[in-house]
Amino acid sequence: MKASLLRRVLFIIGILVATVGALALRGPRLDERPMHTDESVHTAKAGILIETGEYTYDPHEYHGPTIYYFALPFVWASGAHTLADTSEWMFRIVPVVFGVGLVLLLLLMGDGLGRWAAFCAAVLTAVSPAMVFYSRYYIQEMLLVFFTFGALASGWRYTQSRRIGWALLCGACLGMMAATKETCIIAYAAMVGALVLTVFWGRWRDGVAIPLRASVKVWHLILGAVMAAVIAVVFITGFFTNPRGALDLFLTYGNYFERAGGVGIHDHPWYYYIKMLIYTKNAPGPWWSEGLIVGLALVGIVGVMLRRPDSDGRNGRIGIGVLGLNVDLGRFLAFYTVLLAVGYAVIPYKTPWCALGFLHGMILLAGVGAVVLLTWLRFVPARVVVAVVLVCAAFQLGQQAYRANGVYAADTRNPYVYGHTSTDVLRLAQRLDDLSKVSPDGKDLLVKVVTPGSDCWPLPWYLRRFGRVGYWSAPLYDCDAPVVVVSQELQEEVEKRLRGDYQTEYYGLRPDVLIAVYIRRDLWDAFMRTRM
Amino acid sequence: MKTSSMKWIGVVSAALFAAVLVIPAVYAAAQDMEAIKIELPKPMFVGTPKNIVSDNLEKVTGKKREPFLAPKDVTLVSEGKPAIASDMEPIIGELEMVTDADKEGADGSFIEFGPGKTWVQIDLEAAYEMFAILVWHYHSQARVYKDFIVQVSDDPDFVKDVTTVFNNDHDNSYGLGAGKEKEYIEVNEGRLVDAKGVKGRYVRVHSNGNTSNDMNHMIEIEVFGRPAA
């Protein structure tokens, strides 16, 4: 009894230590990296919620509102009332919390994965460069992964206890997935497919059926499903301020199926994600690899598929394997991860953060794989050597994570940097701030931004504190203003229409994309007097 | 002879005499000049970068640089010379790469420094009369390095007797004074700075990030000169 209590306490301490490590890698310097276009769009949407209390679901774009609602506590705690009052950390702290929460959720699966495997998975979650990078990114992905794992973990707990609380929590997590991002249906499909395949595999491999009926109560499942629907509807309708949102949640899939079908700039081949994870070096400079996770995950998959569980007849269920792993759970996670990876691979539309879902599955399996590997080695010195190698490899992953979020946070050589804003935009923001200090209008300095389509992002974020900023997608008749920001495509036409005397500058918006800035001469001279 | 006629004869004679002296001198000087031989690395990106119009950005023409003429006894004097930098522990590479004659920009031939104001300094180990200073930052994509300033001095600390031979820091953000030269998009030709025969032992090259990211890079610095008299 005491020994098992000690093991449980040590396990909890191990997970907490990994959690602190996860926080240390994710938390600091959230405002250093320039805002990605997608992040700045989401801050603008969150700004509407902050300032008006209203949210309207758009079935064509932007995904679900959970990242906006979860930013509210941090915004309110800081005393901000408008978007102009906010800072980067108030938004980016949201994925940090959920990214760290992923590690803590492993406390719910210690008895399922085996405590050592869960601890290894906690460490890998903490140090995975992709997990760390997108835990600092104000987009929905990390929340989706958290709620997905929350559903799996609470679902597992339900099968072990048959308590309605876990069923409701599982339902709530499934509902939060839907309220976060429409791609949740890929995860739903992978879960159902994994369950079916696990049952068939168990029957074929072990000759024993998994006692599913004994593990669940139907009315618990129904209540869980109702909870999922209620949670999703509450958020998507903006707490019932926009009832139409509930219908749009279904209609939106027509739009997303069309986008997923491809023929756009985000189309990539089927091996895009796996290649990114295994090895990336796309220019002279550092290399990147999460091959440790992929390799150990493969070992874990082989281990759970081939391993036969020990039968102890307890509650009619198949008992725990020698590794402390519940073999059925391991197989379920293996099928789930593979199905999810295949699902994302076949969709032509790809962005790097979409890999997080199945990467997290790989991490869980990698935890199992590490233990399987060490258990297979009978020779103790070999075990020690392999253990040391794995620790060093995990440390190297942590170094990559540190690098990816430090000097390479906005560098195109970082495989997780995708269509990212150049750090030069921060200089532009500083320049405009400096100009406002020498302008008699201060922050009401008139700024005209002329860029085609939606090419102005993330400028609205950096100009949020300016009181008079206008955005045009074509040159206007009167282009003159104290400051004019114009894209390359429209510069010639805008310049023809400018009548004043201007100093021109240019800034990198994204790699290979420059924008011109026209500063009225009197303002420029006033600024330069402060410099000389 | 009338006085006015004498005057005209005197003026014409003086002009002819000056021409006889000057033209051969110029011709002789021209005969002593030749184009310095610059070995260029392979281009790392294809195509001509898109033009953006700015007072302080050179227009991209896509044409090759004109040959640079210098006295015949001018040679490459920087190869293998020691280098130091504001950051002695670069993120990638070693400082020796700055004068190793490898300009390809591939792994093992460039240095990457962290963000912010950065300088690299080479010691020519003797005073030279410099005519051309060439700098290659990083040319794998079309980017502009900010606050590109080149200075020459006999003082290794660059406190006194410093000559600035190039400065495109139009807003004095680096703090060494506002420059009037234009910024430029990096290509495989590197940047040639006309040093106009300035004398000195040390050459310091500054930069402050680029339009793609905050990092600073250096592939090679070449100095063409001759021993100072």
| Content of β-strand of chain B | 25-35%
Overall mean pLDDT of chain A: 92
Oligomer: heterodimer
The chain-level structural class of chain B is alpha+beta
Spans where pLDDT lies below 50 across 5 or more residues of chain A: 313-322
Provide an overview of this structure:
The complex is a heterodimer of chains A (532) and B (229). With 532 residues, chain A is of the alpha/beta class. Chain A contains 22 helices and five strands. Chain A has two domains: 2-404, no CATH class; 424-531. Chain A has helices spanning 2-26, 37-52, 66-78, 88-104, 110-113, 115-127, 129-134, 141-161, 164-180, 184-206, 212-215, 218-236, 244-260, 272-278, 291-306, 327-346, 356-376, 380-404, 424-438, 459-462, 488-497, 521-531; strands at residues 446-450, 468-472, 483-487, 502-510, 513-520. Chain B has 229 residues and is an alpha+beta fold. Chain B has a single domain (33-227), classed as Jelly Rolls, CATH 2.60.120. In chain B, 13% of the residues lie in helices and 31% in strands. Chain B is built from one helix and eleven strands. Chain B has one helix spanning 3-31; strands spanning 33-35, 69-71, 75-76, 83-85, 111-113, 118-136, 149-153, 162-167, 191-207, 216-218, 220-227. In chain B, strands 3, 4, 6, 7, 8, 9 and 11 form a seven-stranded antiparallel β-sheet that branches. A two-stranded antiparallel ribbon of chain B has the order 1-2. Chain B has a two-stranded antiparallel sheet with strand order 5-10. The A-B interface holds A 283-286, 407, 410-412, 422-424, 427, 488, 491-492, 495, 503-508, 511-512, 514-516, 527-528, 531-532 and B 49-57, 91-92, 105-107, 110, 112, 114-115, 140-144, 146, 170-173, 178, 209-215.
What's a concise summary of this model?
The complex is a heterodimer of chains A (532) and B (229). Chain A has 532 residues and is an alpha/beta fold.
What are the salient characteristics of this protein?
heterodimer; A: 532 residues; alpha/beta; 2 domains; 61% helix; elongated; B: 229 residues; Jelly Rolls; two-stranded antiparallel ribbon; 1 helix
